[in-house]
């Protein structure tokens, strides 16, 4: 393409409203423009990148045996009520009514629709397994859209759904999609990790993995082991179950000692309590009151730990878990927030493994300005419900091999789920097996945020003052830049190179604009082609300056530069 004809309106300054590098550079380079908060238009450069990412996804999905289709974005609300997710999904679900007052939703995902389709189309085991996918816009009413394409209200997504006769079949489908995802993200040039994850609002009855691009702007924390392949999202990362500890010296409790009441005026936080009592936070037992699907629970963790709401929700097989309000805490404990404790509490108490292993600790007394010393797990409160209810910390031992865990920030690119019968049972998605018995379809779900992938690639490929797209998704593979368009020798050589690259099957961008060299090079930094051929004073002797992804420049004869560009593109195709 000739740059004089390309709609590429660049910005010289960093947009002040953009926090993420990818957001800044894609606004500056004319890839996207905001239409409303969290809603973007894709200009030609951005659309070219998206189409190439889609192409890679389609190739790998088709190779894995999935079939492309397209479902409506506008979905009948009764399908969501049938699945039970209408109320559960929350305010992110965009609801609307038509002129006949029939209720619809804008699809954030398509489990309900695909189940309703397949239950009509497949009634026999002979048509199984089947895997269906689409690439389509999705809609979620994010409370706070941010980071450009990383958290928007409208976004492009690939979602696939597998249907099998049994769990063994689902294992095969799941592994096929998992491996396809690895190939997709490798071909997109991403540095990523597959991590164990929580199923969230999608739900499921088996393993689930997220694919995370490592990037500082990422909103998720990736926990990984330096020695083995263990990796998990922080909300899912397992803590090691500790052995029972000996007595805590500063508490001075033996088996016959009574609980000691300690007056702690205006001492509410963990830091205030450790300062007041002159003890370490690991000697405290923190009691948190949670509202879980309409019922209150107490969760006990050590004073130096953070509670993990996802683990609480998973343990109780609940849909929603959140900290109780101040009023609910008073109602349940008789005291203000900061003074709750497990002794004499009438709620069910979930005890973290670390707390259960303590000989004694310090807790709230369910009375304002009072704490208790010498509280013994298993004697002064029940250990009926023990589990892993906390976030792991960096440096803790890996639950698989014991090596120290490492933390990274990550951007979620994709998610694969084993749904099992979560949707097929409640929505009557049944088939007749070979024995003539009616059975529920066994489902899997596999999503990729296509527009998120684009942003994640940009986050990882911005180096200094230059964005360099991988060859596989670059809007243009080679940027041909004559320094002076009024120089006949430069333009003749530039036109020759441009036509030879097109003839070789490449996608070059020829900067035929009558602009200063500095403007051209600044725009080239934003256009992000992985290779540049710069035609300057050496044009008269047929020599050009070739620059690759690493920014290193080499003077080459024009024919050698063309060959090098073609070889780089061929490596990607192969």
Automatic annotation (TrEMBL):
GO molecular function: aminoacyl-tRNA deacylase activity; ATP binding; catalytic activity, acting on a protein; proline-tRNA ligase activity; transferase activity
One Pfam family from the record: HGTP_anticodon
GO terms for biological process, alphabetical: prolyl-tRNA aminoacylation
SUPFAM superfamilies recorded: Class II aaRS ABD-related, Class II aaRS and biotin synthetases, YbaK/ProRS associated domain
Residue span, Aminoacyl-transfer RNA synthetases class-II family profile domain: 38-470
InterPro entries with a match to the protein in the record: aa-tRNA-synt_IIb (IPR002314), aa-tRNA-synth_II (IPR006195), aa-tRNA-synth_II/BPL/LPL (IPR045864), Anticodon-bd (IPR004154), Anticodon-bd_dom_sf (IPR036621), Pro-tRNA-ligase_IIa (IPR002316), Pro-tRNA-synth_IIa_bac-type (IPR004500), Pro-tRNA-Synthase_IIa_type1 (IPR023717)
Alphabetized PANTHER family for the sequence: MITOCHONDRIAL RIBOSOME PROTEIN L39/PROLYL-TRNA LIGASE FAMILY MEMBER (PTHR42753), PROLINE--TRNA LIGASE (PTHR42753:SF2)
UniProt subunit comment: Homodimer.
Notes on the domains: Consists of three domains: the N-terminal catalytic domain, the editing domain and the C-terminal anticodon-binding domain.
Stated role: Catalyzes the attachment of proline to tRNA(Pro) in a two-step reaction: proline is first activated by ATP to form Pro-AMP and then transferred to the acceptor end of tRNA(Pro). As ProRS can inadvertently accommodate and process non-cognate amino acids such as alanine and cysteine, to avoid such errors it has two additional distinct editing activities against alanine. One activity is designated as 'pretransfer' editing and involves the tRNA(Pro)-independent hydrolysis of activated Ala-AMP.
Protein name, UniProt field: Proline--tRNA ligase
Origin species: Paenibacillus glucanolyticus
Classification lineage: Bacteria, Bacillati, Bacillota, Bacilli, Bacillales
